[in-house]
Specification:
The chain has 2 domains: 237 residues, Rossmann fold; 61 residues, Histone, subunit A, CATH 1.10.20.140. It is built from 14 helices and 6 strands. Strands 3-2-4-1-5-6 form a 6-stranded parallel beta sheet, with helices on both faces. The longest helix has 26 residues.
């Protein structure tokens, strides 16, 4: 196995990415490195499908549950940590295996991104309220006054981009153009990576999503959400956007029944999988030195062919 090779396992939610990574890691003396934006948090290990203690005992897992839920983790910060873990794996003659469905994290690592500071809930709510009250022309007028270079690049009717540019300037005091010009460069060359993507058809994926949600509830996912709510986190904390938090919070607050919350969580998971599929089709084309798309959920029957694919790049 090439000492500088990086294996990237991605795909749709509930497609078996973690099990595939575990299988490969045991065969290749690998280290599994998390590339999921929700699994970095210490909260919700069941709801975010973090590896179990048993899995962690089988092979080394890194960057899981390292960030307190009170904090905000960014793709740029994760990228720096991932580079460190990849280098540490190589020093031990282990194969780094990145696994996760957060496309932005992979883009930050291999392509670079514009790492703009998160917009606070206060600024976002203020701008959105003003948009409803005064319309986009008023916000565009202020953007033209405060950030003329950025405003010149936008059409006066381009509501989404005008709002984004105005939020960035209001939050940071810097033009979005400045942030774009200081875009982070790729931390690692993608030509050292091979990608395996699990993209099951709907008739396979949807029952898998439903079954996993039920298992999560049986294991204590709702209790996890209850504990998270007791922290009274600010509304802009990313962990609150984890699929299932809003839906099960509604049940805990008496707004919906348990079955209704489960149905809503199922719908949210389906929508998330659809967004993931769109990202993979539009952003990961031509990625790395080789790709293998598996239109099925991972099972041990795929282990040999995936291992053979990876070893072909030694």
């Amino acid at each position: 196995m090439a000492s500088d090779l990086i294996i990237v396992i991605t795909g749709l939610t509930a497609s078996g990415k973690s099990r595939a990574a575990l299988s490969l890691a045991e065969s290749l003396n690998g280290v599994i490195i998390n590339a999921d934006s929700m699994q970095v948090y210490q909260a919700l290990p069941i709801l975010t499908a973090q590896p179990t203690p048993s899995d962690r005992n089988r092979v080394s897992h890194q960057l899981y549950g390292t960030v307190p839920p009170t904090q905000i983790s960014s793709a740029g910060a994760w990228s720096q940590q991932a580079v460190h873990e990849i280098e540490a794996a190589r020093e031990k003659n282990c194969v780094p295996i990145l696994v996760g469905g957060t496309g932005l994290y992979l883009k930050a690592l291999f392509q670079g991104i514009v790492d703009v500071l998160p917009i606070s809930a206060e600024v976002r709510n203020s701008v959105r309220a003003r948009l409803e009250k005064e319309g986009i022309s008023s916000i565009y007028a202020d953007l033209t006054r405060d950030d003329p270079a950025m405003a010149e690049k936008l059409r006066p009717q381009d509501t989404q981009r005008i709002v984004r540019a105005f939020e960035v300037f209001t939050e940071t005091g810097r033009s979005l153009l400045e942030w774009q010009q200081s875009a982070t460069k790729a931390a690692l060359p993608s030509d050292k990576a091979v990608l395996i993507s699990f993209e099951p058809d709907r008739e396979i994926l949807l029952p898998a999503i439903a079954a996993r949600l039920k298992q999560m509830i049986e294991r204590g996912a709702i209790e996890e959400v209850r504990d998270l709510l007791q922290l009274n986190l600010p509304s802009d904390r990313p962990i609150l956007r984890a699929v299932g938090v809003r839906e099960f919070s509604s049940y805990l607050q008496g707004v919906s029944t348990k079955d209704e919350a489960l149905d809503q969580a199922y719908i949210a998971s389906r929508q998330y999988a659809k967004r993931q599929k769109t990202w993979l089709r539009t952003q990961m084309q031509g990625f790395g030195k080789g790709q293998k798309i598996v239109n099925a959920q991972f099972s041990e029957s795929f282990a040999i062919q995936i291992l053979s694919f990876v070893r072909s790049f030694h």
